[in-house]
Amino acid sequence: MRISYGYCLINAINNQYSIIVYFLYLCGKTNSILIMITCIIVDDEEDARGTLDKIIKRYFSDIIKTVALVGSVKDAVVAINTFKPELVFLDIEMPVENGFKLFDYLNTVNFDIIFTTAHSQYAIDAIKYSALDYLLKPINFIDLKEALKRLERKQVVTNNQVRIETLLYNLNAEPDKLNKIALPTQTGFQLEKISNIVYCEAKENYTKLFLFRGNPILISKTLKWVEEILPQENFFRLHKSYLVNLNYVKSFNRQELLVYLENGTTLELAVRRTDDFATAVTKKYSQKKREHETD
């Protein structure tokens, strides 16, 4: 049997192989598919549920089939256990129980998640650090299309639990102190403390992370992606090949354009980044001094 303009992604779910066909409609082509992605929409606002469902039916009916629209975490648990969807659109801000509480009722997470939210930058940062996805309300066709493209490009991952664990860990951390990040490796995801990352080095389309404790980690993302995901107040792009944690900077030589780290590593500093680096280091030093005085 021949499938035009499509490919099959085999994903192990509940110890059985299900074939999820991602159609290249997302790239502008049209055709029919054999199996659609089933989804559940979880949102306490009826209008929000209806709007998202209408967008799906109007623009993505060849790709996604909505099997349930529910208004609470309690109803979402029932729907997930009943329909076993491949994708859940999960609202964050809901009365009684917010969206994150859903994971308290599930032993395993065998579906992809796209969070939906109208605000809360802290929650958004926690989601990003967990390598999960989100959409800002009001949701429109373009944003949903991009989210589905990201879902299509994502590698098969069997350890969603690592990402959920990262999310919940960060949500329980103190405000403005997100502590852990889920790193996409060649075999899945690895949970790592952000403070343990000393510096990152570009390796073509991969990035190698050097840790204060533990062996280096090679992740399947570019250095640009790593730079965007890590907190800017702690990490600085020295050079096209290096991103450094300012907390590990020992000194730097302005004339030779070299940065010396606490672990003995020496990194190159781009000429055009010299002044910005000096400013960033000074700011970080002042912050540490204030924190020390407060303690």
Walkthrough of the structure:
It is a single chain. With 295 residues, the protein is an alpha/beta fold. The chain folds into 2 domains: 6-167, 3-Layer(aba) Sandwich (Rossmann fold), CATH 3.40.50; 192-294, Beta Barrel (OB fold (Dihydrolipoamide Acetyltransferase, E2P)), CATH 2.40.50. It is 29% helix and 31% strand. The chain contains 7 helices and 17 strands. The protein has helices at 46-59, 73-83, 121-129, 141-153, 160-171, 223-229, 274-294, and strands at 6-13, 16-23, 37-42, 64-70, 87-91, 112-117, 133-136, 180-184, 189-193, 197-203, 206-211, 217-219, 235-239, 242-245, 249-253, 258-261, 266-268. The strands form 5 sheets. A 5-stranded parallel sheet has the order 4-3-5-6-7, with helices on both faces. A 5-stranded antiparallel sheet has the order 12-11-10-14-13, sandwiched between helices. Strand 6, helix 3 (121-129) and strand 7 (133-136) form a beta-alpha-beta unit. Helix 3 runs antiparallel to helix 5 (160-171). The longest helix has 21 residues, at 274-294. It is elongated. The model is unreliable at 1-34 (pLDDT under 50).
